Structure prediction request, 120 residues.
Amino acid sequence: MGVNKKEIDTQSGSDTNFFDRVYEVVKLIPYGRVTSYGAIAKCLGAARSARMVGWAMNACGGREDIPAHRVVNRKGLLTGKHHFEGTNLMQQLLENEGVKVVDNQIIDFEGIFWDPMQEL
DNA sequence: GTTATGACCGTAA
DNA sequence: TTTACGGCCATAA
Prediction:
Protein backbone atom coordinates (compact mmCIF):
# COMPACT_ATOMS: atom_id res chain seq x y z
CA MET A 1 0.00 0.00 0.00
CA GLY A 2 1.79 3.02 -0.84
CA VAL A 3 0.70 6.46 -0.41
CA ASN A 4 -1.70 6.61 -3.27
CA LYS A 5 -4.16 9.37 -2.45
CA LYS A 6 -2.07 12.35 -3.50
CA GLU A 7 1.24 11.84 -1.86
CA ILE A 8 0.58 13.80 1.27
CA ASP A 9 0.97 17.54 0.97
CA THR A 10 3.86 19.32 -0.59
CA GLN A 11 4.94 19.98 2.96
CA SER A 12 5.21 17.30 5.54
CA GLY A 13 2.63 17.26 8.27
CA SER A 14 0.02 19.90 7.51
CA ASP A 15 -3.01 18.00 6.47
CA THR A 16 -5.48 20.74 5.82
CA ASN A 17 -5.68 20.83 9.58
CA PHE A 18 -4.50 24.37 9.57
CA PHE A 19 -7.81 25.40 11.04
CA ASP A 20 -7.71 22.79 13.77
CA ARG A 21 -4.25 23.98 14.71
CA VAL A 22 -5.46 27.52 15.07
CA TYR A 23 -8.39 26.33 17.14
CA GLU A 24 -6.14 24.42 19.48
CA VAL A 25 -3.90 27.38 20.08
CA VAL A 26 -6.83 29.71 20.56
CA LYS A 27 -8.38 27.29 23.00
CA LEU A 28 -5.11 27.29 24.89
CA ILE A 29 -5.35 30.99 25.54
CA PRO A 30 -5.62 31.43 29.30
CA TYR A 31 -8.35 33.43 30.94
CA GLY A 32 -7.92 37.18 30.89
CA ARG A 33 -5.28 37.01 28.20
CA VAL A 34 -5.29 37.83 24.51
CA THR A 35 -3.12 37.08 21.54
CA SER A 36 -2.68 38.23 17.99
CA TYR A 37 -3.18 36.46 14.68
CA GLY A 38 0.47 36.81 13.80
CA ALA A 39 1.53 35.17 17.06
CA ILE A 40 -0.69 32.19 16.39
CA ALA A 41 0.39 31.98 12.79
CA LYS A 42 3.99 32.15 13.83
CA CYS A 43 3.41 29.43 16.38
CA LEU A 44 2.05 27.29 13.59
CA GLY A 45 5.13 27.99 11.55
CA ALA A 46 3.38 30.29 9.13
CA ALA A 47 3.94 33.77 10.42
CA ARG A 48 3.04 35.02 6.98
CA SER A 49 -0.31 33.33 7.15
CA ALA A 50 -1.77 35.55 9.80
CA ARG A 51 -4.69 36.09 7.46
CA MET A 52 -5.41 32.40 7.44
CA VAL A 53 -5.69 32.50 11.20
CA GLY A 54 -8.37 35.10 10.89
CA TRP A 55 -9.94 33.06 8.15
CA ALA A 56 -10.03 30.07 10.43
CA MET A 57 -11.87 32.21 12.90
CA ASN A 58 -14.44 32.99 10.30
CA ALA A 59 -14.98 29.26 9.94
CA CYS A 60 -15.13 28.95 13.69
CA GLY A 61 -18.47 30.66 13.66
CA GLY A 62 -20.50 28.35 15.85
CA ARG A 63 -17.65 26.86 17.84
CA GLU A 64 -18.14 28.16 21.34
CA ASP A 65 -15.11 26.18 22.36
CA ILE A 66 -13.04 28.74 20.55
CA PRO A 67 -12.67 32.02 22.40
CA ALA A 68 -12.14 34.01 19.25
CA HIS A 69 -12.88 37.11 21.25
CA ARG A 70 -9.44 36.66 22.80
CA VAL A 71 -7.84 36.90 19.41
CA VAL A 72 -7.14 40.36 18.12
CA ASN A 73 -4.86 41.91 15.60
CA ARG A 74 -1.34 43.21 16.19
CA LYS A 75 -2.62 46.56 17.37
CA GLY A 76 -4.86 45.01 20.00
CA LEU A 77 -7.82 46.19 17.98
CA LEU A 78 -10.97 44.11 17.88
CA THR A 79 -11.01 43.94 14.14
CA GLY A 80 -13.15 40.83 14.18
CA LYS A 81 -15.83 42.11 16.46
CA HIS A 82 -17.94 42.69 13.38
CA HIS A 83 -18.16 38.97 12.97
CA PHE A 84 -19.59 38.42 16.39
CA GLU A 85 -23.21 38.62 17.25
CA GLY A 86 -24.37 42.03 18.16
CA THR A 87 -21.94 44.89 18.17
CA ASN A 88 -20.22 44.77 21.53
CA LEU A 89 -20.37 41.07 22.26
CA MET A 90 -16.66 40.59 21.74
CA GLN A 91 -15.90 43.60 23.85
CA GLN A 92 -18.26 42.42 26.53
CA LEU A 93 -16.60 39.03 26.63
CA LEU A 94 -13.18 40.61 27.01
CA GLU A 95 -14.32 43.00 29.71
CA ASN A 96 -15.97 40.08 31.37
CA GLU A 97 -12.54 38.52 31.72
CA GLY A 98 -11.05 41.68 33.12
CA VAL A 99 -9.73 43.01 29.83
CA LYS A 100 -10.31 46.70 29.42
CA VAL A 101 -11.52 47.61 25.99
CA VAL A 102 -12.15 51.11 24.76
CA ASP A 103 -13.14 52.02 21.26
CA ASN A 104 -12.57 48.45 20.12
CA GLN A 105 -9.04 48.70 21.38
CA ILE A 106 -7.60 46.68 24.24
CA ILE A 107 -6.03 48.62 27.08
CA ASP A 108 -2.62 47.43 28.18
CA PHE A 109 -2.70 45.04 25.26
CA GLU A 110 0.97 44.20 25.60
CA GLY A 111 0.40 43.65 29.30
CA ILE A 112 -2.19 40.92 28.81
CA PHE A 113 -0.72 39.66 25.59
CA TRP A 114 -0.23 35.90 25.65
CA ASP A 115 2.30 34.40 23.30
CA PRO A 116 1.48 30.77 22.38
CA MET A 117 5.11 30.07 21.58
CA GLN A 118 6.05 31.29 25.00
CA GLU A 119 3.90 28.60 26.58
CA LEU A 120 4.30 25.98 23.92
C1' DG B 1 -7.59 24.79 -12.77
C1' DT B 2 -8.19 29.68 -12.12
C1' DT B 3 -10.09 33.73 -9.78
C1' DA B 4 -11.36 36.36 -5.86
C1' DT B 5 -11.62 37.15 -1.11
C1' DG B 6 -10.03 37.42 3.80
C1' DA B 7 -11.26 38.92 11.51
C1' DC B 8 -3.41 40.54 8.83
C1' DC B 9 1.36 42.31 8.80
C1' DG B 10 5.11 44.92 7.17
C1' DT B 11 7.24 48.44 4.53
C1' DA B 12 7.26 52.65 1.53
C1' DA B 13 5.92 57.31 0.19
C1' DT C 1 3.77 61.60 11.78
C1' DT C 2 -0.19 59.19 8.93
C1' DT C 3 -1.81 56.89 4.89
C1' DA C 4 -1.56 53.57 1.08
C1' DC C 5 -0.20 49.46 -1.06
C1' DG C 6 1.59 44.85 -1.65
C1' DG C 7 2.53 40.22 -0.13
C1' DC C 8 1.53 35.89 1.57
C1' DC C 9 -1.05 31.48 2.57
C1' DA C 10 -5.33 28.99 2.44
C1' DT C 11 -10.35 28.38 1.31
C1' DA C 12 -14.42 28.74 -1.48
C1' DA C 13 -16.85 29.43 -5.88
